[in-house]
């Protein structure tokens, strides 16, 4: 076996190992569900909402979906501006700094809108439901990453 064949064999083995790693990672190492998913699961499956509450919460969620989508598009545009600034400056210069600051403003706005959404949903709940909801919010915000 010549050197070229050996290199090709090593590359094929490395590629196969990488594919196996990706498969194992995707199959067995599942990230925790997002906080939002846990809260919605609690709302829609465990709090026994009445039909009026369901209708109000659906309207709140629809409005939030529009706001979130707009802010996520803004964040994508911010990332593109940051990429352009990095490509232009090749270092941490004023354009990169400005792009980062702008991105942080959009991230902060998304966080504020998300919290307003959470409090709007909470306002629809009865006191016993709100207590369970509050516990879930606190737990979701304080759980440590694994």
TrEMBL record:
Gene3D superfamilies: 1.20.120.1490. This is Heavy metal resistance protein. It comes from Novosphingobium hassiacum. It comes from the Bacteria.
């Amino acid at each position: 076996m010549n050197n070229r064949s050996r290199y090709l064999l090593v590359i094929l083995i490395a590629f196969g190992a990488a594919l196996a790693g990706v498969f194992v990672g995707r199959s067995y190492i599942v990230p925790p569900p997002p906080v939002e998913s846990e809260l919605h699961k609690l709302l829609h499956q465990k709090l026994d909402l009445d039909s009026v509450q369901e209708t109000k919460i659906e309207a709140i969620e629809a409005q939030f979906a529009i706001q979130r989508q707009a802010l996520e598009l803004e964040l994508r545009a911010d990332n593109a501006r940051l990429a352009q600034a990095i490509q232009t400056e090749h270092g941490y210069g004023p354009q990169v700094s400005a792009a980062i600051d702008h991105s942080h403003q959009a991230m902060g706005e998304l966080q504020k809108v998300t919290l307003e959404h959470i409090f709007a949903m909470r306002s629809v709940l009865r006191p016993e439901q709100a207590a369970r909801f509050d516990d879930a919010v606190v737990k979701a915000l304080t759980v440590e990453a694994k």
